[in-house]
Amino acid sequence: MFGQHQVQATQFINTPFQHLYDRGTILDWDRPQLRNRKFYLDERHLSEERFIDLTCQPKNADKRALLWSCSAKVTFLRTACDGVVDQAIFEHLFSNNDPTYHFTTHLKGNKGNYYYSRGLIDIIQSSCMDLADPDNPLIEGPEDAVCFKVDGVGMYLSKKMLDAQSPVFHTMFADGLKENAKDFYVLKEVDLEGFLRFLGIIHSINLSVDKKFVENLLYLGDRFQCKLVLQLGEECLLKLPEEDMSLAKKLALANLYKLNCMLLEATHGVSKIPQIQELKQLLDSENKLIGGSDDVAHFKVGGVDMYLSKKILGCHSPLFKALFTRCFNEKAEDFYELKDINSNDFLRFVGLIHSIDLSVDDDSLENLLQLGYTFKCRLVLRLCEDYLLTMTVEEMDWQKKIVIGDRYKLNSVLLQAMEGVSRKKWRIFREKQQLSEYTLALYLRQRL
């Protein structure tokens, strides 16, 4: 059996939306935060097991140039006269990349009885940008806006970010390769959905890559020579099990797009020698990561000289951008000394920003979080957050995750760590640990 609910929250904020199944179902969605979102619930069941797909879409989903994400906590309950017969509670980041969450519940109780399904969706964080709007949030100002046409759809993008992430776009802007001098750039043989995912990655909105789109993203990363997209695509290939993609297919992609780690793992096991050699480049004043003499920034960190790209650092960090525009620097020369920062930690930090090595591990995690938070670098914070979410309770207990999530304002980490923590345990923990008002309020909201 199949059923579908369509919930448009602007119409049902205070009134339960009702739709009857064969046994009777009532679905309540009563959070005002939903007013710009639609949620679709598809259910199929066999015996006691229920397979449920919850899909989120922006209200204006008919617009093709939307780049959006919505982090939500969902509580799904099915009740009958004898109490709760099944339930599911989860937190998920819905986005262009992943608009649907799949979960399973088990129906218990007397066959033929009526039951009532109640769902509560609590929006934690959301954003929705219409890239067809020349004033969309990705653009810093009129001088930063550049118009593209992809698959017949016009969109306004950030010239600075594209220029910093891709030498192909850099050349395109320098040569003025528009359809005509006053109009737009046309990207031919580019899939719109894949390109929106590509933009979500370079703007650090969503760094996830899945098996469905990995080939598309590898193609775009290679076509535009974007190292960040290529590395995330390569990491996806490394993690895919044999049943999802054969070794032969992986090797073919690795050979086509020159993915060194994938080739090394297939032949000799994983090695970080290529990344180590590339990190050493940052100690050379003429390294190939710098886009010319005007782009070089000379740093001294822990007594070690490093030569970095102002363009790349400025795109990923508003503090570096301010530093390079001399908001905080009165000297004329491009020399900057960072005190009280370990040179090895900073090298790993800029390695992430320059897409040399995107790996985070237990040893580097907290130092990278501190540097990401200090320099307001969303890319580094997002990579660390993703790593924290993969850690089991055995690898890091919920108390430490909450402390870290509270310190660096990592919503997904906080919600994951709070799941299942009883009021008694929470009361004992908060008496010993000073937490922000935001985290305390989030726990109360999570318990509703």
From TrEMBL:
Domain BTB residues, every copy: 144-211, 293-362
InterPro entries on file: BTB/POZ_dom, SKP1/BTB/POZ_sf
Sequence intervals crossing the membrane: none
Short name of one Pfam family: BTB
Tree of life domain: Eukaryota
Protein name, UniProt field: BTB domain-containing protein
Source organism: Steinernema carpocapsae (Entomopathogenic nematode)
